[in-house]
Specification:
There is one protein chain. With about 260 residues, this protein is of the alpha/beta class. The chain folds into two domains: about 1-30 and about 110-255, HAD superfamily/HAD-like (Rossmann fold); about 30-105. The chain is about 45% helix and about 15% strand. The longest helix has 19 residues, at about 85-100. It is globular and about 55 Å long.
Amino acid sequence: MTVERSANRRLPIYRLVLWNIDLTLVDVARVSRQAYAEAFQRVTGRPLVALPQTAGRTDSEIFFEALAVNDVSSGGVPDPADPGSQELLGRYTRELAIAFGSRLDLLTTQGRELPGATDAVAATAGLPGVIQSVLTGTIRPNATAKLKAFGMDAFFDFEIGGYGSEIYPKGAQLLSSRGRAADKYRGDIVSTVYIADSGRDVEAARIGGARCVAVASGRSTAGELREAGADVVLSDLSDTGSVVSAVDRLTSAVSAG
């Protein structure tokens, strides 16, 4: 799959498919909440009494909001760009990786793969010119662990993904992922699709210049996802053909345009 860039040179072109993880591919919320609580208490010395809304948010966003709603910080949500906040976030993400890592054996007993997830990921990987990675609110070690627990890790290039330890919103991370993919594979990323489950994720796709396949397997209804502007809305991933067809159509349309 190539496109001519000059009289003497052809560059490979690729279609980048980014997947959200939580409530799109797997549901391990119970294990994640336990890890959040342990890491939060280790870093702040305070119990995590109230967990902020998590849908479409990154672990860094959840942490800073948790500081405010649990009365750890004064004056509302701390500024993530502040050096003190950055140091605190670094400590938290390290503790979160440790807390989650100590619970890996619980992922398949207290969590589950969502219907059709593995088949959808595997089939999408078979499309010509497709590179797959993740754009997730989860920090990288925990994201890898979640997918590995359910046998999906082999289908993803984790080096080019976007993760929850970053202070940047998902839309900006999507652009960075596309740049990393182009650099690593030495080609053009001519189209990008983000497969996710929340209205905030649909917005991130729009900001990052990607198309969006929204799956109503999370907290957002199909109607809410359509209203947010998703290009395609699916009830879940159980119809593998519909997933692959949507990805192929959306990426081919962009490539041809």
